[in-house]
Amino acid sequence: MKKEPVAEILKANPWFASLSSPHFEKMVEIATEMSWPAGQIIFREGQQGNYMYLIIEGQVALDIYAPNRGRLTILTLGPNEVFGWSAVVPYTQMRTAAARTIKPTRAIALDSAALRAACKADHELGYLVYRRLTNIIAGRLTATRLQLLDVYGDGTGD
Amino acid sequence: MYAPQTTTMAPEPMMPFPALITDIKEEAPGVTTYALEFEDTAVRQSFTFQPGQFNMLYLPGIGEAAISISSDPGQPETLLHTIRVAGNVTQAIARLDVGDVIGLRGPYGSAWPLAHARGLDIIMVAGGIGLPPLRPAIYHIIHHRQEYGQVTVLVGAREPADLMFPGEYDAWREQGIEVLPTVDRADDSWEGRVGVVPMLFYSLRPDPRKTMIFTCGPEIMMRFVVYEALARRVPKERIYLSLERNMKCAIGFCGHCQFGPTFLCKEGPVLSYNQIEPFFSVEEF
Predict the structure, then answer these.
(1) Is the pLDDT of residue B8 over 70?
(2) Which domains are delineated in chain B?
(3) Sequence-distant (≥ 6) Cβ neighbours of residue B212 within 8 angstroms
(4) Which residues of chain B have a Cβ shorter than 8 Å from any chain A Cβ?
(5) Is residue A143 within 8 angstroms of chain B, CB to CB?
(6) Do residues B182 and B192 lie in contact, with contact meaning Cβ atoms separated by under 8 Å?
(7) Which domains, and CATH codes, for chain A?
(8) ipTM score of complex
């Protein structure tokens, strides 16, 4: 996989690109590029989270292990999608699912402690970051509801 | 097997014509595609349809069912209908074999706005049995590929075995159409995406100034597709849905398919979101 400076990668993302210069620089400061081969466990459910990730390329599965049922993949994510949000949410701060690469994957990892500290120090940045996170989590909540509804079972007769 | 008695095209819109089942293909558990050809040569040669339209399939003594045409509009002499067993008529159709004859009248209803979509990007979102009514539009785009921008097909199903037409995805990709399948649940043998189909919007970056949405599938799914499209500022008049209700006469007389002020068999099944918005989330509808 090709190597690019972190700032270049973040600039290609519309949300990061929309940040003011000081906010963008702060994000670059706490961001690290990471990559994994296919089949790698990035983190496990219940672990304390140190990073939130933005996928640049590849594919990641979020799994939950259930007794007698084994590994259940609840969601897969691809480029431009975020995982590991629980690391920056005060309520959770531990992983609510395991993350596993399905394909070789490259991501930007944001240091969660540094991100929380930056948001606490600069409330304008904090507002932007947590507004974005709220949208991501709202999307996941909506998707989970739809998954629970099992809409394909809604057979209507002729 | 009963065959309706007619040899020429009748002007009566309620008149079915006999059509021979020439092929049957199982697509997924409970879902089968039937290839039908009109027995009457003149009827067969004069029949045309627009992507998104439906036919009424008739079995005497049992009834009629509205079924979307799932085949290539460029080859209207053989009509494909992909049918999920859901009621009396479709159960009876499931007992038929190649060589049996069925009554067919149509085509009815509105079509996907492919002329209006020229020059635009198109995102098609299909859930479960919602892909068959979109497939004729995919074939049309393949035949006129240079007239359209980026075309993406998001396909959702409950499980991998329920995906419609998976054997065609690579051929569509070769024609410059991005195809992203996803399933609600899967075991470890599935290497594709897991998650509900509207979530696939999160991996896209549609340009709202030049994007049109076509969606067909369970109505709840389409509601979430509309939410995701509107969140990305796609205008309401460029979001099209294919709605299905209790279609009986197919010509806007009986009112069984009424949806607010709209008769879906005649003004639908394909409607833009701004046409139906006031009624789309009304519980009783």
Answers:
(1) no
(2) 17-108 (2.40.30.10), 121-242 (3.40.50.80)
(3) B113, B116, B117, B120, B121, B122, B123, B234, B238, B239, B240
(4) 63, 65-66, 84, 86-90, 127-128, 157-158, 162, 182, 184-186, 188, 190-196, 198-199, 202-203, 205, 217-218, 220-221, 224, 227, 244
(5) yes
(6) yes
(7) 6-146 (2.60.120.10)
(8) 0.81
